[in-house]
Amino acid sequence: MSDAVVTVGPVAHGGHCVARLGESAGELAGTVVFVRHTLPGERVVVELTEGEPGDRFLRGDAVAVLTASPERVAPPCPFAGPGLCGGCDFQHATLEEQRRLKASVVAEQLSRLAGIDREVVVEPVPGDEAGLRYRTRMRFHRTADGSLGLRRHRSRDVQPVDDCRIQAPDALVLVEGQEPAYDVVEEEVRGRSFDVAVDGFWQVHRGAPDTLVDAVLDAAEVRRGDRVVDLYSGVGLFTAFLADAVGPAGAVVAVEGDRTAVEHARDNLRDLPWTDVRHGRVDRVLHRARLGSADVVVLDPPREGAKKAVVEEVVALTPRTVVLVACDPAAYARDVGLFEARGYRLDRMRAFDLFPMTHHVEVVAVLRRDR
């Protein structure tokens, strides 16, 4: 495909900005193009990488900057740029601008998909070095000559990387196709230990577990003796501290679909006998369990969100408070819209920069039953 000169518009969900091709693009004139490696307001040369005439949109990389944003910086990593490692989206922007871009995406998705207009601020998280050296888990691939690398953007090709700038010095490193030396890792949060499968889910930013536990407990406002349901509970990170908060007079039911995570959760929570960890798909477990009611429900679904069936089961429990933890702005907004339609209003929310240099962002939202 030929290159084109564009003036870049707003940021969009997914780590790119939106532009429209001008008349010089010939038959592609007027077509929307999602451009990586650029910032709003810049004038850039775009190399078109995906799509063809007649498509609703195209994809491209900014390969030359004609008019730069004042927020543009030199990427700290030599492997960040067009055609290179696909892991980081925003290394060419200041950290403050990265957070503004993410806030804009969350606000836009919430407005468009849930009909809610809110100001969003993305908060920094302790534990990184100017947005670098925070990632405690890494998965590398091997190149044809055996060296380690990371995938290029939207590709199976591997970019050799001898030093990933967002990798923590003591990170757990896995290599595709290579058996790890051990099966379980012990993580510690607020003085409590959690066993996690070496290839299981755990927040990758070194400051994320503490930050999210604090945010969830603050949002949930659980009381002694409360009945709490913790969905997509993993190895029991939130479950443990929710159980501490409700005390022996309360109860916490945790539901998780990954069998290995459930086994670890039961072991991690063995000193909290008022917890009940159940295995299975969340909507099916809720439907069959007939829990009756709950005071608080916490959800931390995967990237695709909780979706309609789970939301309906949660609403049937008539909790006074729902805490939604989300890592995808679009899925978050859709889930909030589903709760709003069923009488739960978005009370407040916080957004956290758990993935500096990338487009990813974490949101913790409080929904309360409309009385």
Structural overview:
This protein is an alpha/beta fold and 371 residues long. It folds into three domains: 70 residues, Beta Barrel (OB fold (Dihydrolipoamide Acetyltransferase, E2P)); 211 residues, Rossmann fold (3-Layer(aba) Sandwich); 41 residues, no CATH class. The protein is built from seven helices and 20 strands. Strands 7-19-20-18-17-14-15-16 form an eight-stranded mixed sheet, sandwiched between helices. α4 links the parallel β15 and β16. α2 runs parallel beside α3 and α6 packs across α7. The longest helix has 20 residues. The chain starts with a strand and ends with a strand.
Quick overview of this protein structure:
The protein has 371 residues and is α/β, with parallel strands linked by helices. Helix content is 23%, strand content 32%.
Mean pLDDT comes to 96
* Largest β-sheet summary: 8 strands, mixed
Work out the helicity level: 10-25%
| Count of individual domains | 3
Q: What structural class should be given to the helix and strand makeup?
A: alpha/beta
The CATH class name of the largest domain reads Alpha Beta
Low-confidence stretches: none
SSE string, helices as H and strands as E: EEEEEEHEEEEEEEHEHEHEHEHEHEE
| Second CATH tier, the architecture of the largest domain | 3-Layer(aba) Sandwich
Distance between the termini: 57 Å
Number of helices: 7
CATH homologous superfamily heading of the largest domain? Vaccinia Virus protein VP39
Strand order of the largest sheet: 7-19-20-18-17-14-15-16
β-sheet strand percentage: 25-35%
By DSSP, the count of extended strands is 20
